[in-house]
Write a structure and sequence with these properties.
By secondary structure, the chain is an all-alpha fold. The chain is built from 10 helices and no strands. The protein is globular.
Length: 236
């Protein structure tokens, strides 16, 4: 764990991770497929086990002790397996049946977690654990997605006052915001491919609990956007 960091910062981030888990589980539980609903508890257990594995990897300093390796350990053992899972879901029949069964409104409310994530990143910047470019004072505008997500869900999907095409465009824009911060975060982390922020690199993701951000929260948000885009394209 990062030393001299105020306790409220990792605490709020841990609670944000739990909120992400609960909201995603809620979406799975409300699937329109009885088969998916039956497997919802197993999916929840699998996600908890994944978080536990990432916790062990981080606390054993596997990520923070290998910053000179390529590819970085967190990319190899944390990020790529999560991205591969998303790819499998979209490239297999069972996977597509799963993502098509998830409720669009719950996937949209899921983006609410991006607000506390952005606040945590700002606090980490103040404590010299991430560069300014990863905050809303720098190149990161992801908080816009977190603020507008509940509005899109309520006015667009609950009340039907926003056209589905606009909701589709919103998903594409917010997906772009997500990819923007992901690329900047990876290129500012200490590794052989680091390009930015050498004076104050992105070290937070190498420590507990912040390693959950690239290995769990970001993949879940990515899955939410890609699933929403797929469903909206099919409706249009």
């Amino acid at each position: 764990m990062l030393e001299s960091l105020p306790l409220f910062v990792p605490l709020i981030f841990a609670l944000t991770t739990i909120l992400t888990l609960v909201l995603f589980y809620r979406a799975v539980k409300k699937s329109n497929s009885q088969e998916v609903q039956q497997y919802s508890v197993k999916i929840l257990i699998g996600l908890i086990l994944w978080l536990a594995v990432q916790t062990v990897m981080t606390l054993q300093h596997i990520y923070s002790a290998s910053i000179d390796r390529f590819p970085p350990s967190i990319l190899l053992f944390g990020i790529l397996p999560a991205v591969f899972t998303v790819i499998v879901l979209f490239s297999t029949q069972k996977g597509r049946q799963f993502i098509d069964s998830l409720p669009l409104i719950d996937l949209t409310y899921l983006h609410l977690v991006r607000v506390p994530v952005e606040l945590v990143l700002y606090w980490l910047f103040l404590n010299k654990a991430v560069p300014e470019l990863m905050t809303f004072e720098g190149r990161n505008f992801d908080i816009i997605a977190g603020i507008t997500g509940p509005m899109i869900a309520y006015f667009g999907l609950t009340n039907g006052k926003i056209n589905l095409k606009i909701i589709l465009i919103w998903n594409f824009i917010c997906l772009g915001l997500l990819l923007n911060i992901v690329i900047n975060a990876l290129l500012s982390a200490p590794s052989p491919v680091q390009k930015f922020a050498f004076d104050q690199p992105n070290i937070a993701i190498l420590y507990f609990p912040f390693s959950w951000l690239p290995t769990f929260i970001v993949p879940v948000i990515l899955l939410g956007h890609l699933t929403s885009i797929r469903q909206l394209l099919k409706k249009n």
